[in-house]
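In the laboratory, one determines a bound structure by crystallizing the protein with its ligand and collecting diffraction data. In a computational setting the workflow is compressed into a single prediction: the sequence and the ligand go in, and a structural description comes out. We illustrate the idea with NAP.
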Amino acid sequence: MPIATVNPATGELVEEFAPLTKDQVNRRLARAELAAATLRATGFDTRAGWMRAAADLVETEAAQTARRLTIEMGKPIAQARAEVLKCAHAMRFYADNAESLLADQPLADPGAVRASAAYTSYEPLGIVLAVMPWNYPMWQVIRFAAPALMAGNVGLLKHASNVPQSALYLDTLFERAGFPEGSFQTLLIGAAHVEDVVRDRRVAAVTLTGSEPAGRSIAAVAGSEVKKAVLELGGSDPFIVLPSADVPAAARTAVATRTMNNGQSCIAAKRFIVHTEVYEEFVEAFVAGTKALRVGDPLDEETEIGPIATESGRRELAELVDDAVAKGAVLRCGGSAVGTEGWFFEPTVLEEVTAEMRLYREEAFGPLAAVHRVDGIEQAAALANDTSFGLSSSVWTTDPDEERYLISRLEAGAVFVNGMSVSFPELPFGGVKDSGIGRELAAEGIREFCNLKTVWKG
Ligand code: NAP
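The predicted complex, in structure-token form:
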């Protein structure tokens, strides 16, 4: 896969970049090693000052950055701007809170371990490699980089090959804000060269956000080197609507979650599981809302759905629809590619989706919804869990017993009640089953790449 910006709204090659040579990668690793020693010796206050300066830069440059995101991967410009501003918020959150999140934790009763004092402390691991996807080119990286740098680690970024300009922006961002040279660097390399970097003795750990096959492959390499790996992988989140729910609100939210980021979000709800008593009401409103979305030029402020990020991504989406329809699914709206240039795809709703269809098991990475009818809450939970994924989930009910039942039964890293799944710096984020290992964000995220050191004093 070439390292290149290709505008998905037009199919035009904007700019291609030469991958780094082995020597260049090696020089960047050497710089990272020096930076790791420097950064480890700095205090939280110093790093927080640099992080706040980086957040200021992100805010000041938000308009150009948002435009770059839209040109590289096609998200509507208003959503691109929101992504950039969310990054600044997360950077400030970690600047303000890293010290308390990583404070030493004394043992209340050191006598129990025959010590005069005992405590745990969090220390940086060193160089962490981040392998990142294109769907949120800024946010995915910042939600790793802000906590990692605040903990005193150094970051190396291997970004997706179709967002090199975003990767190069991030390459200089932290140094421009004052961080020591080499604290955060981009490696413009293809996926085939990631293994060598993970195996390099200077690299302590790796985090990958992306597809399940990529995660499995990186985790296997990290495992063979006995290096820590955090994996944030795909999802096919359920969205359960029960009779006590506010059905119009559920339907509006269903449209928003399924189509945000042109339908290319890991925590988008992808399977809509609706109780038969409110099924017709929900589906009519959901289909009407989906049909009403404005598809078009993502640089236009009014656009709600832009193109799919890659030609192959659009082809895979069309194949999922064709397979489902051939096996008896009912197409309620959309279903086809649109436009003469670029990789646009109509927002699509399918009913009567069954276990024989690929769509039942695979992640649909685009504006494609599968709707299921169920007779009761047990059936809803069983269907929701009948997937290899377990990222997040959304449940719609006003009955406290139903709420408790679903919160405890759903096999997912998160449950959102009467709302759509969203990530916040204040809350941990991550999945179970094939959706990943480990957590990002909040206290759990910043601690993932720390050595939890136990100290015992006689
Ligand atoms: P992808 O194809 O897996 O790529 C992700 C990153 O991994 C890219 O930088 C890619 O590089 C690299 N890569 C791919 N195969 C690799 C391998 N065998 N070894 C090392 N690196 C490899 O995924 P994507 O298409 O960019 O992103 C979409 C997927 O990400 C979806 O499944 C989505 O659900 C998931 N996702 C998950 C989360 C989460 O937090 N759980 C968040 C966002 C997205 P190249 O670009 O050079 O191939």
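The mean pLDDT is 98. Keep in mind that any predicted model is a hypothesis to be tested, not a measurement.
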